[in-house]
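fyi for ur records
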Amino acid sequence: MKLYYDIKDKPKFPQLIVFAIQQLLAIMAATLVVPIIIGNGMQPSAALFGAGVGTLVYVAFTKASSPVFLGSSFAFLGSMSAAFAGAVSASAGYAGLIIGAIFAGLVYVVIALAIKFAGVNWINKLMPKQVIGPTVAIIGLSLAGNAVGDLQCFVNGAPSSINVHAAVACGLVTLFVTMICSTYGKKSIKLIPFIIGILAGYAFAAVLTLIGTKLGNDSLKLIDFSVFSGISVFALPEFTFLTAAKGIKEIDGAYIGTIAAAYLPVAFVVFAEHIADHKNISSIIGKDLLEEPGLHRTLLGDGVGSIVGAFFGGCPNTTYGESVACVALTRNASVYTIIAAAIGAIIISFFEPFVAFVDSIPACVMGGVCMALYGFIAVSGLKMVKEVNLEDNRNLYTVSVILIAGIGGLTLGFGKITITSIACALILGIITNLVLSKAKTAE
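which gave:
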């Protein structure tokens, strides 16, 4: 893939700001929703600040060689809930969030040190293209239901009060404007298709909302403008460490053990997804990030970035597939865009109107965008699979079990710990590949 901007290329300042906003729009909805799901007073703006700082940490550790944004990790939702469930107070729960992130980050640090001395060849042998390719594909495919659900404005998988036909129409306007800009637009337009698509979808939703208001039809009110009421221009986010400081004295050894049990296993699961994401971005930019700057550096950046992110926002961070897809679709791999987006996230977290604007974007608009983003992640994996000899039963079975386990949603639970479908599929694929690797090549 020919890039418009390579990793070290620096766009002009006005372009850089626009590109950074586009990256933010791609990752912001998911980053903000994690603290909303957890509740207990967690602030989305603090999570956004933590994501920005965590990304800057990641960029520093990777020597500004990996164009990926870090956002709130969904993999740790169960762990974060366990931190509050086992705490004697909300303040202690906030302290548990930071302790848990430290445990998870230490896992990354230990693995990074092992890789520093042992190299990455063993990982390439353990996770060849017939393993990584379908795993990357299911990262996108596993999110297909989320994209379609958002497109229809479903809530928890069930229809909402919104008119589904209006929602789908709005989402498709967003999707087609994005696709047309990306395909037919000039270079300047091809670099910002998501911004144009989201704005077009938002404008269409605003028109439907005004019509619904005029006719007294609530099902056409796609935008909730009430989020803009009662907000100030600037507000200091309630950082996690400030609340956590009040609960330190309430923490005992048993609670720390609970936190360790909730976070440590998940860190190993996210490690596998970390490799898949970096294999994917490597194939997009034409540079093996596992070799340079090295997997040990990307792991350290991810791990320490998670700790720092949780210190401010409570949420451990992880590399975002939406960010990777945005790089691929816009062909803009400039790490300066990522840096600008991280700084923008920090600044915007103090700027309530912008956070409110993002919060007001209808689910159907983001669903339209995500159909392209998640689809591209899936296609990136399928491109890797295309290079695999599927006439060989060893490869055929490996790819098959990963796709079926991942798409079928195979998960395993051990108490409060859940191994995600992606991790289960990857582990099963690795085992299958190892078991069959000794077989002779078919004649």
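The two ends are 34 Å apart (CA to CA). thats all i got for now
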